[in-house]
Amino acid sequence: MVIDMLFFLVTVAGHWHAKKGHAQQVAAARRAAEHLRAAYQTAAAQPLGVLHQRGRRLRRPLLDRQTLVIREAMPDLAERVLAEPDWYALAVTLADAEAAGHDPAALLADAAGRRELGTAEPVSDVLVWRLHRNADLPADTSGTMPVAAAAEAPAQRTPERTSPQPGARRGRG
User: What are the pLDDT digits (tens) for 90-131?
Assistant: First the structure.
């Protein structure tokens, strides 16, 4: 999240310098943005990977519900986000936010409307971090929230207990 904020500030500074005609500062801001983007990709790989795996384990009804939330909250970007391979991280983040007592559609609409997303690559990653910040979700993505954990758990069959057949001996003695 810190890298995201720094990236935003460098971008704003670059735009300001561009308006003032400061070519060297614009070039420096672009280089800084490239370095921050590389740092972000390195730092975000592990936590986003965990979220992605958790999202892939969501049960179909919850995944379908998160798809509807995305389409409702940001209709202009929904298909772009849903086409991204890592949108599952966003789906599980929405489930975690809901489990924490938030309205996922309202939270997502707010996160999407705060700043532009047209230049974000990928959009779902940016929204994941915005949601984590806005919903005050734990930064440790390996933990699960109660509802999301139940929704992620693979369906397990409990073994049927077998009772002894009538007339069968239970043991010696």
Answer: 999 999 999 999 999 999 999 988 877 777 778 898 899 899
Residue for token pair 């707010």: 110
How many other CB atoms are there within 10 angstroms of residue 64's CB atom?
Answer: 12
120-129 exposure pattern, b = at least 16 Cβ within 10 A, e = fewer: bebbbbbbbb
Closest-CA residue to 122 (of 77, 72, 63): 77
What mean pLDDT do residues 138-148 have? 56
Measured N-to-C along each axis, helices 87-99 and 23-56 cross at an angle, to the nearest 10 degrees, of: 70
The answer to whether residues 114 and 108 touch, using CB atoms and an 8 Å cutoff, is: no
